[in-house]
Amino acid sequence: MKYRSMLLVPAMLCLLGGLDLRPVSGEVAVEDFDSIKLYTLKNSSGMTVKVTNFGAIITSIVVPDRDGNMGDVALGYNRVEDYINAVDKPYFGAVVGRYGNRIAKGEFSIDGETYTLATNNNANHLHGGVIGFDKVVWDAKPMEGDGWSGIELSYLAKDLEEGYPGNLNVKVTYRLTNANELVIDYLATTDKKTPVNVTQHTYFNLKGEGEGTILDHALMLNAKKYTPIDDGLIPTGELADVAGTPFDFTTAKAIGRDVEQKHEQLTFGLGYDHNFVLDKGGDPKAATLAARVTEATTGRVLEIRTTEPGIQFYCGNFLDGRLQGKSGKTYVHRGGFCLETQHYPDSPNQPNFPSTLLSPGEEYRTTTTFKFSTQ
């Protein structure tokens, strides 16, 4: 199944219609099966972002280097079949939920009632379950505004879908601005109390997708603390200082500098796969700087700002060269990194963590901005 494609620019929006598949007889009803499409956002400087309504996946982010050469910095595929059939399900570019990250033993309780979820990550629940937000077809609506183009994706997660209570209406909006910013807005409402933690799971390589490892990228995380994990990758509940550990990214350093150190947390995660507690300043709900990544050979810079309290840093520990990306190059061990803005893992079972519980009449609203530049 190939994507149907569309181009969105501030001056023009166009949408390719679905195929008109008419019944072949009076007894056989044939419905439109052409529901998966690919949308291309393009700004005035030539940056492009491609998004499919399957899994709300970002399939491509093309940005310039310091010499103006364009390159795709997001790992992914050209065909939807490859996202569906990929070994190890790496969640390339997807929106994950209803609860991104892990929930211990696939269980949580609300008002004395226990809910049981799929345990799809060893003994734990990961990224919304067997069929999470990354594996469903979203409704899509092109959008445009002054200096930006975008796409609004919406999905209704029904009561007890993947075990979660409540009918959850979710909207994710991608907006590409002329300042080379990709702004992601999340909105959700529910008719029953339910935990919500939706995030974006793009893997980046600022040298270009398939261009070796990301160990030479310099990373700064605006976090003096992180949440240590047990050997099942579930937080222990502690907020630990990064100072004096391999987890100190308060000053930019190469991702690979300390990743092979002998440290229990690196052993548990097979490298970095941890939630960092963002330093939010005076307003915990304000959009603040979370991370800054630079790559010396291309001069590309990625800055991330978010309203969320945490960010998961994952350095591609499970990539092993078996997956071949859109350019035909294999994705090697640590060939991409993720910086997933979020609430902390296992928050429904950790009363000392910021709450992820959404109640009827409330709105779940978060915003994350990925800004690209060069130096």
Automatic annotation (TrEMBL):
Positions of the catalytic residues: 201 (proton donor), 340 (proton acceptor)
Source species, domain of life: Bacteria
Stretches of the chain forming a coiled coil according to its record: none
Annotated keywords: Carbohydrate metabolism, Cytoplasm, Isomerase, Phosphoprotein
Gene Ontology MF term list: aldose 1-epimerase activity; carbohydrate binding
Pathway: Carbohydrate metabolism; hexose metabolism
InterPro entries reported in the protein's UniProt record: Aldose_1-epimerase, Aldose_1/G6P_1-epimerase, Gal_mutarotase_sf_dom, Galactose_mutarotase-like, GH-type_carb-bd
GO biological process terms held by the UniProt record: galactose catabolic process via UDP-galactose, Leloir pathway; glucose metabolic process
Chief subcellular location: cytoplasm
Class in the EC hierarchy, top level: isomerase
Subcellular location: Cytoplasm
Residues annotated as binding beta-D-galactose: 101-102, 201-203, 273
Pfam families linked to this entry: Aldose_epim
Record GO cellular component, one term: cytoplasm
PANTHER family: ALDOSE-1-EPIMERASE (PTHR10091), GALACTOSE MUTAROTASE (PTHR10091:SF0)
Alphabetical list of NCBIfam families matching this protein: PRK11055.1 (NF008277)
Family statement drawn from the similarity comment of this UniProt entry: Belongs to the aldose epimerase family.
Protein name: Aldose 1-epimerase
Organism: Novipirellula artificiosorum
